[in-house]
Design a protein that fits this description.
The structure holds two protein chains of two kinds. By secondary structure, chain A is of the alpha+beta class. Chain A folds into two domains: 183 residues, no CATH class; 86 residues, Alpha-Beta Plaits (2-Layer Sandwich). Chain A is built from twelve helices and four strands, in the order H-H-E-H-E-H-H-E-H-H-E-H-H-H-H-H. Chain A is elongated and about 100 Å long. Chain B is α/β, with parallel strands linked by helices. Chain B has one domain: P-loop containing nucleotide triphosphate hydrolases (Rossmann fold, 3-Layer(aba) Sandwich), CATH 3.40.50. In chain B, helix 6 links the parallel strand 7 and strand 8. The chains are: A alpha+beta, B alpha/beta.
Chain lengths: 302, 232
């Protein structure tokens, strides 16, 4: 059995090497679905970053009355933070609000002039709240509408921002869904293309399969050779794709970090490098072996 | 050992508007173990079709083929493989594996039957010497002349000492020297107990052999003589 296995592997390797041109073509075609899977893996970090950045724009602010003390505001902050659906609560004091405004509009002479005309600090202390999802903002707004907070709260700007927040979450959910559907369609098409390419390569060797059958080779002895070939194609394609994806991650890292501060593609890639290779290896070898097995079945009926 | 019972094979030729071509028409004869039988006839008489049926390359339209009293068309896949391993076939179109050298083509059969590497290394040089292909051992079929390819096919058919040798026009592309050598080889292995069925339309070869001759004409047996001569 071991001898037979060894011979099958040897013959599969020999066939692959001797049919070099077709082997190269098969490997290139198999790289398509593997690169697709790899790009989904790589892009997930980028898309997550963009989605998070977009969703971070969604927030609501609670403005407190002039006479509300900082201790009371901080207590309210604590209450809101304890809501499970709340991601982040930031306290902006009156002074901080004035500083932020001045910094943001320092180049606008009109606004600076207007500010100097107003006596004292016109800004109110506030809490800036970021929740997890669209429906969570409703919950936070309802929470702040309770009787106990009515005396302290001047305004909650949720109703003005509600439509914007809805659009943001709708867009990001749409992007995720579209991405998944697109990936699934492209994945299916690339698998079909790969399968057909391997099938065509085996079609060219149907006479060879017939000769092997006529001299008494068993189905598995013949199939095993093509299985080995498919496995080698998949493995080589995976290795090339691994090198390409590593190269792209390293090369694009600095450019992407300039565009998306805080996103280090290379570090994320290295953190998941084992998973990436496993994914590529699994895609390549499964595709190669299954395509070969299915394609040879038809020509084994001699 | 081998028995053809009322074998009929009809081909439907699509290109000719599904015209029926009767390749074999009610053929019945037997071949005993250790016998040497020549099957003769014009081109298109049905000689190759007979061999294809025995190797199960095709199915008969009617009748049955018995090998050791068993209907081969009722064989399980494992038994089909065993049949083919017990039959060494020399095909008219050689049927050499194109991506393998002469040595590898011959070795393939030995690998299929499970010979050890040592046996392969021992036997292949001997058979190459017998068919005078030592200098072409590492060449691929595309690099061989017709005669060399035929000798390689013969070597492959004989390397594993099969019970039955089917030889379809084995000397068609050979020069007279090699033709004589190959015929002597077939006679020798027949003396050692191998059943040989040889198909040919070469009068000289058949008459030289002085063995049983089954004559086919238009798919029928017209003559079956124990020490026959080629005559149509």
């Amino acid at each position: 059995m071991l001898t037979s296995l060894k011979r099958t592997i040897g013959l599969g390797w020999q066939n692959m090497v001797r049919d070099g041109g077709i082997a190269v073509a098969n490997i290139f075609i198999m790289m398509i679905p593997i690169l697709l899977v790899s790009s989904i893996f790589l892009l997930k970090d980028i898309s997550r970053y963009m989605i998070d950045a977009l969703q971070a724009k969604a927030d609501i602010s609670v403005y407190f009355n002039e006479n509300t003390t900082e201790d009371d505001i901080l207590k309210v902050k604590q209450d809101i933070t304890s809501i499970p659906q709340v991601n982040e609560v930031k306290y902006i004091s009156k002074d901080q609000a004035l500083l932020d405004f001045t910094e943001r509009h320092k180049d606008s002479a009109t606004l600076m002039e207007s500010l100097s005309q107003v006596n004292g600090n016109p800004f109110l202390a506030s809490l800036n709240i970021k929740a997890m999802g669209m429906s969570d903002y409703d919950q936070v707004a309802s929470f702040l509408g309770q009787e106990q907070y009515k005396a302290m709260v001047n305004k909650v700007n949720y109703s003005e921002k509600k439509s914007v927040i809805e659009k943001i979450f709708f867009l990001t959910a749409g992007v995720s869904k579209t991405g998944l559907i697109l990936a699934a369609i492209l994945g299916f098409v690339s698998v079909l293309v790969t399968f057909n390419t391997i099938r065509m390569a085996i079609l060219n060797r149907r006479e060879e399969i017939a000769i092997q059958r006529l001299v008494g080779a068993s189905h598995w002895f013949i199939r095993g050779q093509f299985f080995v070939e498919g496995l080698i194609f998949g493995l080589l394609a995976a290795i090339f794709c691994f090198l390409i994806s590593s190269g792209i991650s390293w090369y694009a890292n600095s450019s992407l970090e300039a565009l998306m501060p805080g996103l280090n593609l290379w570090n994320n890639y290295m953190a998941g490098i084992g998973t990436m290779f496993l994914l590529q290896f699994a895609t390549g070898t499964i595709l190669g072996t299954i395509s070969s097995m299915i394609a040879t079945t038809r020509y084994l009926k001699v | 050992m081998i028995r053809f019972n009322n074998i009929t094979k009809v081909y439907q030729v699509k290109a000719a508007g599904h015209k029926r071509v009767v390749a074999l028409d009610g053929i019945s004869f037997g071949v005993e173990k250790g016998e040497f039988v020549s099957v003769v006839g014009r081109s298109g008489a049905g000689k190759t079709t007979l061999f294809k049926l025995l190797l199960m390359e095709e199915k008969p339209t009617g009748g049955s083929v018995l090998y050791k009293n068993e209907n081969i068309y009722k064989f399980k896949p494992k038994n089909i493989n065993n049949l083919r391993r017990n039959v060494g076939a020399v095909f008219q179109d050689y049927k050499l594996l194109p991506n393998m050298t002469v040595t590898e083509n011959i070795a393939y059969v030995m690998k299929v039957i499970g010979s050890s590497d040592a046996e392969i290394r021992r036997d292949i040089p001997k058979i190459l010497e017998i068919v005078e292909l030592e200098d072409r051992a590492q060449n691929f079929p595309a690099e061989l002349s017709g005669g060399e390819a035929q000798r390689a096919a013969i070597a492959r058919a004989l390397i594993h000492r099969p019970e039955v040798v089917l030889a379809d026009e084995p000397t068609g592309n050979l020069d007279p020297y090699h033709t004589l050598d190959i015929l002597k080889l077939f006679l020798k292995i027949n003396e050692m107990g191998t059943t040989v069925i040889l198909a040919s339309h070469n009068r000289e070869i058949i008459n030289k052999l002085k063995k049983r001759v089954v004559t086919l004409d238009q798919g029928k047996i017209v003559r079956d003589e124990a020490k026959g001569r080629f005559s149509l």
